[in-house]
Write a structure and sequence with these properties.
The complex is a heterodimer of chains A (115) and B (115). Chain A has 115 residues and is mainly beta. Chain A is built from no helices and eleven strands. Classes of the chains: A mainly beta (115), B mainly beta (115).
């Protein structure tokens, strides 16, 4: 069964802390993504990576960084957490399909609360 | 820029009713891809369908059907004879450039099917 696994379902952190969200996929997918989901805003893309050590900014990269040292692992880093980063974070992976995007496979999400 | 609008924030129907979820998109690209995803209460988004801009044929899969109309930039999703298990948040998404792997999501529609 294919799987995207996010390391933590629930986290509570304090303002200013450094936060790591880890994501691992077992499908040998080239592409990996980090989205955040907020009520009324849907999913917004933070960063994505199409290869090891490659990354590209999404629509809301401010306050975040990412790391992809291995193909199966994509980490999201909040250098100094702030209360407006309280959200649900979703990791996804995909493989290109023809000339277009393939379907995304999502993890269960990490709900982060910053106090 | 690409944009997806799901104007219906919440829909509530009684079991066995038919229900249509609307999706309107904006893109300047001639080649693009449209998707629908389902997010059940467990939280993990599940892929439902992928459509490219050159294929306007409607698609039916069991109780699910999709109506793609380029003339109105819409990609609507209908559930026939709804069931309680259809209760979820549904997202429409767009990838607006050939070769682009990232998806832009709409705000989502929360569908509740009452017994």
């Amino acid at each position: 069964d294919v799987k995207v696994t996010q390391s933590s379902r629930y986290l509570v952190k304090r303002t200013g802390e450094k936060v790591f969200l880890e994501c691992v996929q077992d499908m040998d997918h080239e592409n990996m993504f980090w989205y955040r989901q907020d009520p009324g805003l849907g999913l917004r893309l933070i960063y994505f990576s199409y290869d090891v050590k490659m990354k590209e900014k999404g629509d809301i990269p401010e306050g975040y960084s990412v790391s992809r040292e291995k193909k199966e692992r994509f980490s999201l880093i909040l250098e100094s957490a702030s209360t407006n980063q309280t959200s649900m974070y979703l990791c996804a992976s995909s493989r290109p399909r023809g000339l277009g995007p393939g379907e995304l496979f999502f993890g269960e999400g990490s709900r982060l609360t910053v106090l | 820029a690409q944009k997806v609008t799901q104007a219906q924030t919440e829909i509530s129907v009684v079991e066995k009713e038919d229900v249509t979820l609307d999706c309107v998109y904006e893109t300047r690209d001639t080649t693009y891809y449209l998707f629908w995803y389902k997010q059940p209460p467990s939280g993990e988004l599940v892929f439902l369908i992928r459509r490219n801009s050159f294929d306007e044929q409607n698609e039916i899969s069991g109780r699910y059907s999709w109506n793609f109309q380029k003339s109105t930039s819409s990609f609507n999703f209908t559930i026939t004879a709804s069931q309680v298990v259809d209760s979820a948040v549904y997202f429409c998404a767009l990838s607006g450039r050939q070769g682009a792997q990232k998806l832009v999501f709409g705000q989502g529609t929360r569908l509740t099917i009452n017994p």
